Amino acid sequence: MFVVKKAKTLEEATNMALEELGAMKDEVRIDVIEGGGGFWGQLGFKRAEVKVSFPNGIEGLSAIAHQIFKLMGFSVQIEISEDREGYYIDVESAGKDGLLIGKGGRTIKALQYLINRIYERRVGREKKSFLDIDGYQRRKERALSQKAVSLARQAKLTFSEVITEPLPPAERRIIHKTLEKDQEVRTFTIGKEDSKRVVISPQS
User: Fold this and answer.
1) pTM of the model
2) 61 and 45 in one domain?
């Protein structure tokens, strides 16, 4: 999304574009098309013209994340990386992780959803972003991976299916991904909506 504006000065043109986008200066990229000043033939002074746009990729996500945490009153360090599956936003909160993660990770999930929705509205649908605060998600993923291995071992020893408790999509994905190369078991999902579970079944 971008806006092109003309005015007497660069400042005025920029402010007009920012108002239309509903953004602040540190959230956007400003490209000067015409600087204003001087003369334009017999028509008088040149008019300033700018193109103001929301950046995409890591730059755009960084601007969104910094603005959200700033508005929340938190001073954080943010690093963003990218691979084929998406963007990974790692936040160091200087001891404020309890407030930003929330009970059962509810706050971190809400913040991740908010970042993704703002980014999509600004630049369109792209790869999903995954938010982690002080390593919370990585620790949770490791625990789920260990649990998956343990459940697979149980399924092999008992020659029977093992079924997890209801899990959200992201956690089901971790179970599937952890065991996808284990040729002695197969995994699949059962249930509907919020009651979906992963079945770990020994291969016959």
Assistant:
1) 0.73
2) no
